[in-house]
Every structure is written in C-alpha cells, then in structure tokens.
Amino acid sequence: MSASRTSLSLLRTLLPYKTQTRAVTYMPRPGDGSPRPVTLIPGDGIGPLVTNAVEQVMEAMHAPVYFEKYQVHGDMKQIPQEVIDSIRKNKVCLKGGLRTPKGGGVSSLNLHLRRELDLYASLVDCCNLPGLPTRHENVDIVVIRENTEGEYSGLEHEVVPGVVESLKVITKFCSERIAKYAFEYAYLNNRKKVTAVHKANIMKLADGLFLESCREVAARYPTIKYDEIIVDNCCMQLVSKPEQFDVMITPNLYGNLVANTAAGIAGGTGVMPGGNVGAEHAVFEQGASAGNVGKKKMVEQKTANPLALLLSSAMMLRHLQFPAFANRLEEAVKNVILEGKYRTKDLGGDSTTQQVVDAVIAKIE
C-alpha cells in the first residue's frame, strides 16, 4: 500500500512536467482547411528534380495545396504573362532555379519576377542543423535583403565604346519599407538584434540614405538592439564569429553576397530555405542562389539535394497558415539530417535525390 501511494504521489508530481507535443492555442478560421492553389515553376537544371521532390512529399503528407505548373526557363526573353497571372491569382509560388545568362544584355528573369510582383523583401534562413557538423556552432542568422533596387536595378548603358555606366539606385521609400519588414520580422519572431550592412564610408549618399532609414525605423523598436557594420568587415566577421549576428538587413547586392556566405557557414546552400515576399505575393525557393541550378552531371545522375526547397516549402505552408503541416515537414527533414543515413554529395554522402525524398516521406508522422 505504501509503495502504491508513493507511485501515485510521484505520478502526480511528474504529470505537470509532461512535454507538450502540440499547440493548444491555434484555432483555424472556418474554411482554413480548403486546399490552396500554388503556382509551380520547376525552372532549369536541378529545378525539376527538387520541385518534384516537393510534389511527392506534399502528396504523401496530404497537404492542402495543389500545384499549377508552368515551364519557365532562364533563356526566355520574359516570363510568360500566363505565369504572372497565375501568381497574381494564387498569391503564392514555389520555384526552382532559373539560369541567368552571363553578359550579352539578357536580363534576369528572377529580377523580372521580383519587380513585376514587387517582391521587395528576400529572406534567407541560415542556421546550424543538428547532425550536420560545421566549422562554427550556434549559427542562427536571418538575412533580409532589399530586392528591387540598388546595383540590381538593371540601369546600365554604354556611354562610349569601351565605357559602361551602371547606376546604383537607393530610395528612401524602398529603404524604409525593407527596414520596417526586418524589424517587424525580428519583433514577431522574438529576435534580439538587427544589424544593418552598408558601405556608407564610401557611398556616403546612397548607403547613407539606407542607414538613415534603418535608424529611423530602429527608434520605433526600443526592445530590439540595432547596430551597423561595413560590408567588408561584415564578411570577415561572418567567417570568424558568425554567432554574433542575428537578423541582418542589407541593400540588394550586399545581401546576395552575405546570404550565400552565411549559408555556406551554417551548413551549405543545399539546406538553407528562403523566399521573396511583397505586400500581396510570395515566391519561395532555395534560400541561397549559389548552386540552385546545379551542374549537368548532377542532373544526369539525379543527385541534387532537395532539402533546401523542402524547408522552403515548410516556410510556404506557414505562410499559407498550415502550421501543423509545416511542422511535420520540417521535423521530417531535420530527422533525416540528424540520422545521417541519406545524404547527397554536398553533405558528404552518396544518396540520390529520390533516396533522400523517400527518407523524408518515411519520417513524416
């Protein structure tokens, strides 16, 4: 009897500490479970491989989304209007990489898409993943990049033969809205610090205006620490002490460089998710642009890493207000990484894309 009472007392003590495995505060609105259409652009190179991986996983977990697929390739002169119309209608797009021709005056379709839909904020989530060893620990960086102006404005012309002028455009409006987005992201996600990356010591007017806008917005968020760093020092600090950074806000060109560097430090571009968002639309893709098209051999051998786009798809599911599906997908991907049995070459393994996809599907609860 005494032992029984002791056991009962112990049980009562332990019950309050039982780990909560589900959210008890999420109450969907009527109709939230209706399947949502998503525009799908497989893209070039490894794009069809990794977007097909997402399709398989979404079907396996019975996610409430369905895809409207369109073929778009980087060598096209422009994105077909039917694709733009589909994204405008659906509000959400998932895309593989689009190959951008080097030189020759051919404009980037990625830039065209961002401008057409005013996807002014790019977000790349760079953090250490359990089971994936890296040189640095405790890396948890979110790079938020202005997506529509700066050196990527596409304003170039030949002044005289042999002399080309490329304009960098920075505006108060665009600088302020990306700063608002970065601080709002930090506030909503309980992040502690926002760092502005710049080169205002040289580009005093352009980057000076960017910093001025960031400072004005920072003053409205007294609970979030704000600091600034020159871009060249930023690169050095990233490779030596990346754990010091939290949320980073950058103009367009710097953000491209910083995001790819941070992704490489945290585990590689093959596992870093990201997306581009505006007031009305969102496009989700592999977070870091390096390697998002891949090499011909990788396509032929079907060994592309699908994990970055799968994690981007989890971001997409949260954006669509399907948090339980997002959590299941993210946990499955993280468990596959932690187990370490199925990894593509970039992560030190020899698995095919399909083997990794099958492993993720097997982990989905």
UniProtKB/TrEMBL annotation:
<keyword id="KW-0809">Transit peptide</keyword>
<dbReference type="GO" id="GO:0006102">
    <property type="term" value="P:isocitrate metabolic process"/>
</dbReference>
<keyword id="KW-0460">Magnesium</keyword>
<keyword id="KW-0816">Tricarboxylic acid cycle</keyword>
<feature type="domain" description="Isopropylmalate dehydrogenase-like">
    <location>
        <begin position="37"/>
        <end position="360"/>
    </location>
</feature>
<comment type="function">
    <text>Performs an essential role in the oxidative function of the citric acid cycle.</text>
</comment>
<dbReference type="InterPro" id="IPR004434">
    <property type="entry name" value="Isocitrate_DH_NAD"/>
</dbReference>
<dbReference type="GO" id="GO:0004449">
    <property type="term" value="F:isocitrate dehydrogenase (NAD+) activity"/>
</dbReference>
<dbReference type="GO" id="GO:0046872">
    <property type="term" value="F:metal ion binding"/>
</dbReference>
<dbReference type="Pfam" id="PF00180">
    <property type="entry name" value="Iso_dh"/>
</dbReference>
<dbReference type="InterPro" id="IPR024084">
    <property type="entry name" value="IsoPropMal-DH-like_dom"/>
</dbReference>
<keyword id="KW-0496">Mitochondrion</keyword>
<keyword id="KW-0520">NAD</keyword>
<keyword id="KW-0479">Metal-binding</keyword>
<protein>
    <recommendedName>
        <fullName>Isopropylmalate dehydrogenase-like domain-containing protein</fullName>
    </recommendedName>
</protein>
<comment type="similarity">
    <text>Belongs to the isocitrate and isopropylmalate dehydrogenases family.</text>
</comment>
<dbReference type="GO" id="GO:0005739">
    <property type="term" value="C:mitochondrion"/>
</dbReference>
<keyword id="KW-0464">Manganese</keyword>
<keyword id="KW-0560">Oxidoreductase</keyword>
<dbReference type="GO" id="GO:0006099">
    <property type="term" value="P:tricarboxylic acid cycle"/>
</dbReference>
